[in-house]
Amino acid sequence: MADGTEQNQSAGARAVVAHAQDPARRPDVLFRRRRPEGTEPSVWWAIGGFLAVSAIVLAGLNLIPG
Q: In this predicted model, what pLDDT tens digit does every residue of 33-54 receive, in sequence order?
């Protein structure tokens, strides 16, 4: 590829990246949002959510006989 096509591909890739949407706001990425510094949710929300879902699953499994 000594005819310059590799250089053209590289320039094309840079143009695509330069004009890309903000990755945090792409429509195919669910539940992701860029927040200002200092306003990130606490890690305890994730821990609490895990514990709540685990408790619901265990309670549901206790309803299954056998």
A: 777 888 888 999 999 999 999 9
> What is the rounded distance in angstroms from the CA atom of residue 50 to the CA atom of residue 44?
10
What tokens does 41 get? Answer: 């949710």
Q: Which residue type is seen at 38?
A: G
- List the chain domain ranges: 5-32+41-62
DSSP string, 4-60: SHHHHHHHHHHHHHHTPPPGGG-TTSTT-----TT-PPPHHHHHHHHHHHHHHHHHH
Please tell me the pTM assigned to this model.
0.46
